[in-house]
Design goal:
By secondary structure, this protein is an alpha+beta fold. 27% of the residues lie in helices and 25% in strands. The strands form five sheets. Strands 1, 2, 3, 4, 8, 9 and 10 form a seven-stranded mixed beta sheet that branches. A four-stranded mixed beta sheet has the order 16-14-15-17. The N and C termini lie far apart (68 Å).
Length: 240
Amino acid sequence: MKKIIIIIGAWLACSLAQAANLSGVPRIVDGDTLVIGTAKIRLEGIDAPETDQICLNAQGLRWACGIDARDKLAAHIRARDIRCSASGVDAYHRTLATCYLGGEDLNAWMVREGWALAYVRHSSAYRQIENDARTQRRGLWQGAFIAPWDWRHRNNKTEILGAFSVPVTTQALLLGPSATAGAPSPACTIKGNIGRNGERIYHLQNQRFYARISMNVHDGRRWFCSEEEAQTAGWRRALR
């Protein structure tokens, strides 16, 4: 019996050690969530904008900042191996972790570049780094935005963060529908727009004018689930 207990104890210790240290090339879900193998990982101590979140850029234009935050993280990693040191599990069964690209703390990098905020209700580890990003107006701080935790429960009293000089209509712009509002499903978010000359052009979420296109399907605009579907229907991809 004692031998069995020792073997089980050794197995548990090994399993915990493996769970506490994950490594590999990640798939980026959003600015603070990634997947390595079958493990979904939440970058601990930070909060990035949701993929459907809208911000204003330095010119006061609506901007799909959540998509940009996700893509900036993916571009920085560039399909290279990372390692993640786990510290627990959140309410959604995601592994909470600090992840590293070589010796660089990726959680800190997202906050430093202004693509995520320090999630101070859970950790103050990145508070000073956030202050620097705010001062330098990097990433989200260049214009105006709603903190991700407020975006998820936003209303007309939600605080607006960002640069000092923003349009008086900022709150109305940011509290409007998300960029993908009205899409038939989360997998069908390509916007088919009708140009002034009747030209059919489709826009992907990471393209410049995606968030500015209002989808009134009654005037010929439509949603697509893939680029192949859009092209087959006679639409061309937007140039930017």
